[in-house]
Design goal:
2 strands; two-stranded antiparallel sheet; mainly alpha; 5 helices; rod-shaped; single chain; 3% strand
């Protein structure tokens, strides 16, 4: 056998000098509850459905309360004028009070109720988001 026939050993890759330990458990433990809740919402599990159902109930309850405010506020005016006809005969700037209240004052009232509804609905949604993203204690 000649020197040319000897197999040449392949060069070896450099070996790392130290060992590195990668721990993923600490990362996954940190947001495990929030991530689990988001997964349950996305996969529409029973827990996710219960959370969404709670949000829908809160929004429905808010809508019904605000509807009751509008019903009492605007629906109560004709009742007031029927019960106290003297109030219905009052004139302001030559216009009967019922026309002013129902024709002019009702619009700012409805805008105020709508604004309050939007603020409260956004607060419900923010509370829901905080519940979903709350880290485990």
């Amino acid at each position: 056998m000649t020197a040319a026939d000897d197999p040449v050993p392949a060069p070896r890759a450099p070996q790392p000098s130290g060992r590195a330990r990668i721990v993923l458990a600490e990362v996954s433990r940190r947001d495990s509850r929030a991530e689990r809740t988001r997964t349950e919402l996305a996969q529409q599990t029973r827990v996710g459905e219960a959370l969404v159902r709670g949000l829908v109930r809160a929004q429905l309850a808010l809508a019904l309360r605000m509807s009751l405010v509008v019903l009492i506020g605007l629906g109560g005016l004709p009742w007031l004028f029927a019960v106290a006809p003297a109030v219905g005969r009052v004139t302001v700037f030559g216009v009967n009070l019922p026309w002013l209240l129902l024709g002019l004052a009702s619009f700012p009232f409805l805008i105020a109720v709508g604004w309050a509804y939007v603020q409260l609905a956004e607060r419900n949604e923010q509370d829901f988001t905080d519940l979903v993203q709350r880290p485990e204690r």
